[in-house]
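Reading a protein record of the kind used here takes only a little practice. An example makes this concrete, so a full record is given next.
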Amino acid sequence: MQKGMAQSRHVNYEEYGRKLDKRIDVERQRDEEYKEAKQLTSNMDGQLPK
């Protein structure tokens, strides 16, 4: 988990746990990625033949 956070968010886990502004930034990024992925899958679902 620590390595994944450091690679994808460029924030180490200790800093994430200690600083509220870093935590808010990371959670905002996660939310944006979730929304993008959800939109992408819904677009793909509409294109699949039934």
About this structure: Residues 13 and 19 are 10 Å apart (CA to CA).
